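Filed under: proteins

Residues; backbone shape codes:
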Amino acid sequence: MNEERALDLLGGVEDPDLGEDVVSLGLVNGIEVGEGGTVHASLALGAPYSPTETAIAGRVREVLAEAGVGDVELSARVDRGAGGGDGGETEGVLPDVKNVIAVASGKGGVGKSTVAVNLAAGLSGLGARVGLFDADVYGPNVPRMLDTEERPQATAEETLVPPEKHGMKLMSMAFLVGEDDPVIWRGPMVHKLLTQLTEDVEWGALDYLVLDLPPGTGDTQLTVLQTMPIAGAVIVTTPQDVAVDDARKALRMFGEHETPVLGIVENMSGFRCPDCGASHDVFGRGGGEAFAEEVEMPFLGELPLDPGVREGEAGGAPIVLDEESETGGAFRSFVERAANNVGIVHRQRQARARSETS
């Protein structure tokens, strides 16, 4: 086995989303053939534990093993890209975080924080290293939703060590103020706080950092988009027209900052009655999917309005972790689609870069 033969074999491994083989797309960073026939392949895969990229890596191993390679070593490396911000503003920010996912909505009351918490917990459940940053300065809810009272610990270097729950590292304004204290701050103070909580928190090496943004399109969103390398955004809506109208504004905000949108998710899509088992469309149904189709964005799924979601939050256990729950299954499917779309964003960028240099 030599490098040329290995590349020829990998030319038969197709990316199911981009429709070409991994070699043609530029997804093979390099091949090394060691003593004894060991093959090490570096792949441009950027969404750890996403089902699609896990399958691509598995197929690479399979193809090489079928050709008689006894020991196959794989590694994944992909450039994050500029993400949000203007030019190089985000360069060097969160260098050990592979992917920053922003969860946003145009209005409050659509369950955005619930979606963010379950997205982070679901990614952790897949095996990823995850952080959850509650960036809703004025209305932080994440610590309550995870039933955690542990506070960040300060180090001698005046950095903060975030507490952990369900394998997630957590940071929230709620950790830094009294439980009932209002946050009455102007934009510059919010900007400074978010910058400090990005740079002065020991997030460590993470596969994903999920940002729970406040509703709307204000100072917090602007600060995040200008200073953090966003891999992609998830936009949350309910089926109602009024929620979809505001979600449209959030979509345009990300477009103006050239931030990839991973897709639209419809929350509170049908009420599942725990007594009769029937589903009732309290807020209508299909508005999020129709919106995604209209703006040509991926639809990440429907999340039911289920009392189990609230009960899970009251006990600090996100429903996505409940293997017996049908609603938990809907959340897990959403998590997998979001993770897969992170990978698509990275692989499309890699393919474009290859085509521009060839």
About this structure: The longest helix spans residues 326-357. Residues 3-78 form a domain with the GMP Synthetase; Chain A, domain 3 fold (CATH 3.30.300.130). Residues 90 and 275 are 50 Å apart (CA to CA).
